[in-house]
Specification:
Two copies of one chain form a homodimer.
Chain A (H helix, E strand, L loop, with lengths): L16 H12 L2 E3 L6 E3 L1 H20 L3 E2 L5 E3 H4 L3 H7 L5 E9 L5 E13 L4 H11 L8 E10 L13 E11 L2 H22 L5 E4 L11 E8 L5 E9 L3 H6 L2 E3 L5 E3 L1 E8 L1 H10 L16 E5 L7 H16 L2 E2 L2 E2 L2 E3 L7 H9 L3 E5 L1 H5 L2 E6 L7 E5 H29 L1 E3 L3 H8 L13 E5 L4 H11 L2 E6 L7 E2 L6 E2 L2 E5 L3
Parallel strand pairs in A: 3-7, 15-18, 15-19, 22-23
Antiparallel strand pairs in A: 1-2, 4-6, 5-6, 7-8, 8-14, 9-10, 9-24, 10-11, 11-14, 12-13, 16-17, 19-20, 20-21, 23-27, 24-27, 25-26
C-alpha cells in the first residue's frame, strides 16, 4: 500500500470510525451539538441537504395524491395510551410538558407554574393525534382514502445522542393514510416504501435492501413494518426508512369508522410511513472519505464552487468578471429538480480555501486564473476523484457538459456503495462462521464490523434474541427480493424457508 | 338595499362577526380545533396557503443572502433568563418540559418520570438559543454578517385561542442576523420589513401600513420594533409581521463578540423578524364574504376547479375527456411562482358541488357540459364576482387569458381592501370624537369597530395606557409614510409632531 498524503479528517476511518464521523460533520459544517442535551443545530450546509430531500420526496408524495397538513406538537397522555403496544413502545423516551407558565420561585429564580390537568407529550410520532382528526373526517367510504403527510419535528428522548443518527429532537415527515380495504392499505404501504427506495438509491446514491421487519422489530402497534436498510462504511446497517401497515389497530384505538358501500359500519385500515434527518447521517457514512463528506450531486447543498485565483491585484476585475459571468451561465442550467447552484469563494486564504470545499463535499471545484481565462478554459476538480487530479476544460465544454459530469459523479458514488455492500455481504450457513463474522477479535478494528450475513432463521423469537444478546446482531429485515431457499437456522438448526439479513446496526 | 339570497355562511359578517369567522374556516376546510387546548389542525386546503407563503418568502429571503438552518425546539430556562425583558415578556405563556419519560404510577396509569435537572421551555421564539450558536460562529468581522432563517413551530400558551389568529402552537419563520455595525443591522431590519410588505400587498392582496411600535408595544428585549399593520373587515387592526432591531442587547446576553478590522473586541448588532400562520387569519378577515373565503390567486391553494356536468351517463366519457385535456393544458401554464393548479370535481351531488368551491374560495370555477363542448367553450365563474354571474368563453380564449383573469382577481381583491381601509381611516383631532369613534354604542354592531384613527400623540406612556384602558384602543404604529405635522395629543392636548395609528386590534 503506497504511502498516502495526510488526510483532511483526523482521525481517519481506519483509525477511529466513530470519532471520524464526528469530525466529518464538524469540518463539513453540516451541524453541531447544542447546549440542549441530545439536540442538534442543523447548520445551513446541512439544512440545504434536508431541503433537497424534502423537495424530492414532497413531489413524489404529491404525485400519488398525498396532501400536506399540520397537526399539534402536543399529544395528551390519554391519547397515547389508546393503543397499548404503542404507548409501551414510546413511554421511556417521552418529553413531558407539565406546566404552562413560569413564576418567581421562593429563591427569586423562575420556576414552572400553572400545572396542567393532563400532561402533554411532545409527539414522538403522530398516529394517535392524527387518528383523532381522521375519526372526524371519515364518515363514509366516499371519504376514503385519506392521504396525509406532515413535515414536522418530533422528540424521542435519547440518552446517548449522536448527530443526525440519534438525536432527542429530529426532523422528519410522517405520512398517515386511511383506506376502506386491507388490500388498498397494504398496496399503499408498499408504494411509499418504493418511494423511499427511489429517494435512497437515485438521489442519495445509497443502495438499500427492501424487506420486512421481524415481529420484535416492528413499529409499536403495527401489523407489518417494511423498511429499507443500507450498509454504512463500517459495515453496520442503518434503517433508512420505514412504512407500516397498521391494520385496524389504530382505527380501533381512534375510532376511525366508516359506512361501507354496503351500508355496514367498518373500521378503516391505516398506514404510516416516515423518513428523517437520520438520512443525512446515512449519507455521511455512505459517501464520506478521509477528506470529508462527498455530496451526491442530486441532493448536494450546492453543485459547484468557483475559485478565482488572483495573485496580482491588477487581475482582479478581469478574473471576477469571468467568474461571475460563468456563474450566471451555470445557474441558468438545471439539474435534477432545480437550477444548478453555484458558490463563489474569493477569500484570500491560500490552499485552505480548496480544502474547505473538499471537506464540505461540493461535487465540483473550478479554479479560474488569468492563464485559464487567456485560454478561455477552467480547471476542474471532482470530489469523487483524488483532490489533485484536476482537468483543464474549455469553458464552453464545461458549461455544456456539467450536467453529464454531475451524473457521472452521482453514478460513481452509487456504484462504490454497491461494491462495498457486495464485498461485505456473505451467505453464511455455519454457526461458528456466523459468530466469527460478527466477533470483533477477528477484525482489524473493533469499530469496523462484519457486514451483512445472509443466513437462515427458523422464525423463532428465541433464536432472534439469543443472537442479539450474544453478538449484538439483529435481523435487519426479511428481504423481499430473495429467492425461496430451504436451509437450517444458523442459531438452532431447525428448518428455514428463507435467508434473512443479519447485521450490527445503528 | 335589495334583498339578498341567503348567504352560504351563517351567521353573516353583519350578524355576528366572530362567529362568522369560525364558520368561514369550517366551511372552507382550512383548519379545525384540536383536542389539545389552544392548538389547531391545519387541514390540506389551509396548509397549501402556508406552503405558498413559505415558497414566496423563502425565495425573497434567499435573494438577500439569507440561509435556512434549524435550531432546537427546547430552550433551557437559564438561556431565556439571560435577557431580563425577554424572559419577563414570555414567562406567562411558556410550555415547560419537566420530565423525559413515563412510568406506571401508583394507580396503574402512566405518570411523568425522569425529572430534568433544568426545566426546558418550548421555544416561544429563538433569540437566545440561536444567539448561543452565533456566539460560536462569530470570531472576526470576516464572519459577519450572519444571515439565518428557520421555519419552525413555536409555542406561546394561549388562554383564549382563536384559529390562526391566536393559537398556543403556531408555525412561523424567524430570521436572525448579526452584523458588525449598527447601521447595517438597521438596514437589514427595514429590508425584511419591506419583504413582508411585498408579501402582504402583492401576494396576500392585503394592504398594510409600515411603521414603528411605541416602546410599550416593542418585542421584549428589542431596541426598535417595526411592523406591518392591516385593517380587517371588522375594522380592527392585525399586526401581520414584525422586524426587530435588537441593538446589542441579545449579543451581550449571548456573548456574540467579534474582533473588528481595527482588532478591537466588539459586540455584534443583531436583528430578528418573523411572520406566522396568523397571516392566514388576516387573509380570511381581509377577503372573505358571506359565502366564505376568497383566495387571492397568487397564494391560493389551487387556482381553478373544473366541474364536469354529466346529466346523461352516455356523455360521461366525452365530458371527462374534454375536462382532463383542459386540465392538462392549464397545468402546463405558470402563474406567479408555480404552475397553474387545477382541481377536477366530478362528484354527483347537485348544486352543493359548486357551493363547496365557492366556500373554499377557489378563484375560478369552470363548468363543462355537453353543450359547452359542442361549442368548444367553457362556462366560467369568478370568486370575486356574484356567484351566478358566469361567462361563456371559448376554450382557447380561456386558456390564453387565464393568467390575465387571475391577475384581475388579484388586483380587485387588493383594491377592495384598500377601499375598506380608506373608508375607515379618519384623521381625528378632537378628544370627544376620538372616543365616539371607538365606542360601541355609536356603532351598528358591537363587533364592528371604528377603524383607524390617525391622531396626534404626545409620546407619553401615560396617554397611551389611558387610551388603552378607557377604550381598549392601542397605538398600532407610528407610520413611516406620514408627513410631519404639528398638532395636539388627542388625549392630553400637549404638543405632538406626528400622527399615529390608533385602533382596536387582534
Amino acid at each position: 500500500m503506497k504511502k498516502q498524503a495526510k488526510a483532511a479528517i483526523n482521525p481517519t476511518r481506519a483509525e477511529d470510525y466513530p470519532q471520524w464521523y464526528q469530525e466529518v460533520i464538524k469540518h463539513s459544517d453540516l451541524a453541531e451539538r447544542s447546549p440542549v442535551r441530545g439536540c442538534m443545530v442543523i447548520k445551513p450546509w446541512g439544512y440545504a441537504i434536508w431541503e433537497n430531500i424534502k423537495q424530492v420526496l414532497d413531489n413524489m408524495f404529491k404525485e400519488t395524491g398525498v396532501k400536506n397538513a399540520y397537526f399539534p406538537l402536543f399529544i395528551p397522555l390519554s391519547f397515547l395510551e389508546k393503543e397499548a403496544e404503542h404507548v409501551e413502545g414510546f413511554a421511556k423516551e417521552c418529553a413531558v410538558v407539565t406546566h404552562h407558565r413560569l413564576e418567581k420561585g421562593p429563591d427569586g429564580g423562575l420556576v414552572p407554574a400553572g400545572q396542567l390537568n393532563e400532561p402533554l407529550i411532545i409527539r414522538p410520532t403522530s398516529e394517535t393525534i392524527i387518528g383523532d382528526s381522521f375519526s372526524r373526517w371519515v364518515d363514509s367510504y366516499r371519504d376514503l382514502p385519506v392521504l396525509i403527510n406532515q413535515w414536522a419535528n418530533v422528540v424521542r428522548w435519547e440518552m446517548r445522542p449522536r448527530l443526525f443518527l440519534r438525536t432527542s429532537e429530529f426532523l422528519w415527515q410522517e405520512g398517515h393514510t386511511a383506506h376502506a380495504t386491507k388490500d388498498e392499505a397494504i398496496t399503499r404501504t408498499k408504494m411509499m416504501l418504493n418511494i423511499y427506495e427511489k429517494l435512497a438509491e437515485e438521489y442519495l446514491a445509497m443502495p438499500v435492501i427492501k424487506g420486512r421487519k421481524t415481529p420484535s422489530e416492528r413499529f409499536p402497534g403495527a401489523v407489518d413494518t417494511m423498511c429499507i436498510e443500507a450498509m454504512m462504511q463500517d459495515r453496520k446497517a442503518l434503517q433508512a426508512g420505514t412504512s407500516h401497515f397498521l391494520g385496524q389497530n389504530f382505527a380501533k384505538a381512534s375510532d376511525i369508522k366508516f359506512q361501507s358501500a354496503e351500508e355496514k359500519e367498518e373500521y378503516a385500515w391505516t398506514t404510516s410511513w416516515g423518513v428523517s434527518t437520520r438520512l443525512i447521517g446515512g449519507l455521511i457514512m455512505t459517501h464520506s472519505d478521509d477528506d470529508g463528506i462527498i455530496l451526491p450531486p442530486k441532493i448536494a447543498s450546492s453543485h459547484v464552487v468557483l475559485l478565482p485565483i488572483i495573485k496580482n491585484p491588477k487581475d482582479r476585475s478581469k478574473v471576477m468578471e469571468f467568474t461571475e459571468s460563468l456563474a450566471k451561465e451555470l445557474k441558468d442550467k438545471s439539474y435534477a429538480h432545480r437550477s444548478i447552484e453555484v458558490e463563489i469563494d474569493d477569500r484570500d486564504i491560500g490552499g485552505a480555501r480548496g480544502w474547505d470545499w473538499i471537506k464540505k463535499g461540493i461535487p465540483l471545484r473550478v479554479e479560474i486564473g488569468p492563464r485559464d481565462i487567456a485560454e478561455n478554459s477552467v480547471f476542474v476538480g471532482r470530489r469523487d476523484q483524488e483532490h489533485n487530479n484536476k482537468t483543464s476544460l474549455k469553458r464552453d465544454v464545461f458549461v455544456a457538459e456539467i450536467t453529464d459530469i454531475l451524473d457521472e459523479i452521482q453514478k460513481n458514488l452509487f456504484e462504490r456503495a454497491i461494491s462495498l455492500r457486495k464485498e461485505n455481504s456473505v451467505k453464511i450457513d455455519d454457526t461458528r462462521k456466523f459468530k466469527e463474522f460478527f466477533t470483533p477479535e477477528n477484525l482489524e478494528k473493533p469499530e469496523i464490523h462484519g457486514g451483512f450475513a445472509l443466513s437462515h432463521w427458523c422464525g423463532s423469537d428465541e433464536c432472534e434474541s439469543r443472537i442479539k444478546e450474544d453478538l449484538s446482531v439483529t435481523i435487519r429485515c426479511i428481504p423481499f427480493d430473495i429467492e425461496n431457499e430451504k436451509g437450517k437456522c444458523v442459531c438452532c438448526g431447525r428448518p428455514s424457508t428463507n435467508r434473512v439479513v443479519f447485521a450490527k446496526a445503528y
